[in-house]
Amino acid sequence: MPVQQVTILGATGSIGKSTLKVLAQHPDQYQVYALTGFQRLDELAQLVEQHSPKVVVVPEGKIDTFRSLLALHCNDKQIHTIEIVEGETGLCQVASAAAVNVVMAAIVGSAGLKPTLAAIDVGKRVLLANKEALVMAGELFMQRVKQAQATLLPVDSEHNAIFQCLPTDYFSSSARFANQGNRAGVSQILLTASGGPFRTWTLQQMHQATPAQACKHPNWSMGQKISVDSATLMNKGLELIEACHLFELPVERVTVVIHPESIVHSLVQYIDGSTLAQLGNPDMCTPIAHALAWPQRIATTVPPLDLFSANCLNFEQPDEDRFPALALAKSAMKTGGCAPAVLNAANEVAVAAFLANKIAFTQITQLIHAVITQINVLPAHDLDTILVQDLEARELAGQWIMANANRTT
Ligand code: NDP
Ligand code: MG
Questions:
Q1: Which residues 6+ apart lie within 8 Å of 192 measured at CB?
Q2: How confident is the model at residue 409 (pLDDT cuts 50, 70, 90)?
Q3: Do domains 4-154 and 336-409 have the same CATH topology?
Q4: How far is the CA of 119 from the centre of ligand 2 (A)?
Q5: Which of the residues 147, 177, 236, 262 could staple to 193 if both were Cys, CB 3.0 to 4.6 A apart?
Q6: Domains of the chain: which residue ranges?
Q7: Ligand 1 mean position to 368 CA, how many Å?
Q8: CA-to-CA distance for 90 and 96, rounded, in angstroms?
Q9: Residue from 107, 235, 236, 302 whose mutation best tests the ligand 1 pocket (most atoms within 8 A of CB)
Q10: Of the ligands numbered here, which is closest to the C-alpha atom of 56?
Q11: CATH placement of domain 4-154
Q12: Which ligand approaches the C-alpha of residue 86 most closely?
């Protein structure tokens, strides 16, 4: 296979850097085509120095600032050969460029939607970490994958695990209707969740939780937003919606299982009583490498799982009273239309407000519930409607924060 040209959307983030680590191990197979950053421009300049991309994307109006940072870190050849583009147009450009074979979609939140769709629309191989994009646009997103015959590979560890446990003909039409509606004999998907840093906390303790405590995940090292989502379990709620779309299953066929050790990354149950699972040390380099090389395998530096030192593997039911985010997400998926986009937008605003110490941890889900009940959810016929509802939800969330900020409930 010729050397694959890779664009990393969100290169300065946790997934972006893990992707670069995997690519650097296989220079004969992959080359970095483009890297993108947003606030951490100094880090982006350092990544340019290390990986020599052909193009970089910076936010609108930041090209001059970035040029001066490049001068601090890079050699003359790198400075003079690199193309710097800006804003959403720049992101869509590097996601869809003819020279690109693979796009890692690792921007956090709704900002990743349009660039990810730009890659999909031209039929790229898209490695999806940016779950918010799929949650927001759901059916529309999957329709566009099919229309353009893009190759969509899940990077989220649970979905990557499920993908690995499904039969290879799962997505073919003959498998779809076999076994009386049990597609390819699959009866349930079991989506594991670590339970986050507050798994054993009372609601009262959670009410006092600080951003630093919420971001201290017991098993994974991740960006701030997804860390808070893991603490509220909204991450699992978003993943439940993600799984329904990726694997074309109704909510009832996806069960969330708390598994504090994060060794079993998810499981698939079949109608014959079999349960298949994918296990491994919690390191995102594994699903990234899997999605990059599929259907082949490439090596990573992740050590093999040592079952002798793994001790016990525990599994529990989630507590939806202490973690209402799960029920909110299930209900949004059942409502359909723009409801998941509204849920996602309200969550993004709530998490940012919590990180800025404007609302308490337990107010995150209160805010989302308030926004969802207030909004008139529209059918998700097109991207414009989804984006209008996203904006509406953000405005309502902003108003809720003004009215309730720092109020003990
Ligand atoms: P980080 O916060 O570490 O990184 C986010 C990336 O997105 C950074 O490169 C950031 O740039 C960029 N970014 C943020 N806002 C914008 C914007 N408005 N426009 C353009 N770029 C932007 O997040 P993670 O790497 O942890 O997560 C990325 C995605 O992957 C999320 O959707 C997350 O849910 C998903 N994911 C992450 C996992 C993990 O282990 N981290 C596991 C599974 C899924 P900058 O830093 O320069 O500001
Ligand atoms: Mg995950």
A1: 158, 256, 257, 258, 259, 262, 264, 265, 266, 267, 315
A2: very low
A3: no
A4: 22
A5: 236
A6: 4-154, 157-331, 336-409
A7: 21
A8: 10
A9: 107
A10: 1
A11: 3.40.50.720
A12: 1
